[in-house]
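Input chain follows. Return structure tokens only.
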Amino acid sequence: NTTSALEITKKEADECYIYTVSNGKITINEYDESCPKDVEIPATIGGIPVTVIGTYAFKGLNLTTVKIPDGVVTIESGAFRGNKITDVKIGSTVKSIGSIAFQNNLLTSISLPAGVTVGAGAFTNNNIPDAHAMIYKMNSDGTYDYSVLIGYAGDSKDVVIPEKVNGVALKKIE
């Protein structure tokens, strides 16, 4: 059962979001640059759950902080690229973060939910020290599995994978 996507205007969407509704779920496609730079994405808009942050939806808007609620499952490629984000909170239901999603920001650390997959370069060109740039698998109990590397957030082109890593769940490290 598929429904056609419906484009909603900014005024109908709390005046900050342009989004589509498909199959009873919202994808945020754009954020109005005149809206606040500290962004708390709503879990629902008009009672409809927000599940996807679209490709380049928040790109280059000088955002400083972002809170992504539980309920969001996918953060698409380049979604928050090129901002001034120093702090991001990612809800526990996020399962996929696309390539270059948070590239070119001011993050100094990241914390990811259990089971998330991370695209190439998702956190590159931030202020994350190389000593803390390896992104490891998080277990459902909140502990990290340091034997499974799922991403790299540093800027070094010469990356040495730690010996303790048994599995690398990466397609490409940029």
